[in-house]
Amino acid sequence: VQLQASGGGLVQVGGSLRLSCAASGDMSSEYGMSWFRQIAAGERELVAAVSNTGLTYYPDSMRGRFIISRDDAENTLYLQMKSLEPEDTAVYYCAASKHWGLLVRAMWKQILYWGQGTQVTVSS
């Protein structure tokens, strides 16, 4: 499984961005997918997750400003972000796992498949 994240960039406070993650192969039947972001050296924070059946999960701190979706026909994962704040500045990573529990419990160290990360910078 190979994942390729894109769509990051520089945006002003209050702006919006949409991240994409292109996946190799057919991910739809087996893999849940998620977005994490790097919050400190060696630590990643769950932003959102979507199961192989389309069930979505957001940590409470992420609910409302982020929307995760997937297009299985295109093998692509998306993260729509709005009302961005300086605190959202981070490298965002997409990830895939057959184990939904690893994604929603943010057990990122046990997730096998990662994209390379895309930088999001929110300027004030």
Portion of residues in beta strands equals: over 45%
The termini sit apart by 37 Å
Radius of gyration: 13 Å
Helix content: under 10%
Question: Could you state the order of secondary-structure elements as H and E?
Answer: EEEEEEEEEHEE
Structural class category: mainly beta
- The count of helical stretches stands at 1
Major beta-sheet overview: 7 strands, mixed
Shape: globular
For the residues shown, what is the average pLDDT?
94
DSSP, total strands: 11
- What is the assembly state of the chains in this entry? single chain
Unreliable spans: none
Task: Give the arrangement of secondary structure elements.
Blueprint: E1 3-6, E2 9-12, E3 17-23, E4 32-40, E5 43-50, E6 56-57, E7 66-71, E8 76-81, E9 90-97, H1 100-104, E10 113-114, E11 118-123
Parallel strand pairs: 2-11
Antiparallel strand pairs: 1-3, 3-8, 4-5, 4-9, 5-6, 7-8, 9-10, 9-11
Description:
- The chain has one helix spanning 100-104, and strands at 3-6, 9-12, 17-23, 32-40, 43-50, 56-57, 66-71, 76-81, 90-97, 113-114, 118-123.
- The strands form 2 sheets. Strands 2, 4, 5, 6, 9, 10 and 11 form a 7-stranded mixed β-sheet that branches. The protein has a 4-stranded antiparallel β-sheet with strand order 1-3-8-7, with no helix packed on it.
- The chain starts with a strand and ends with a strand.
- The mean pLDDT is 94.
- It contains 1 helix and 11 strands.
- The chain has 124 residues and is mostly beta strands.
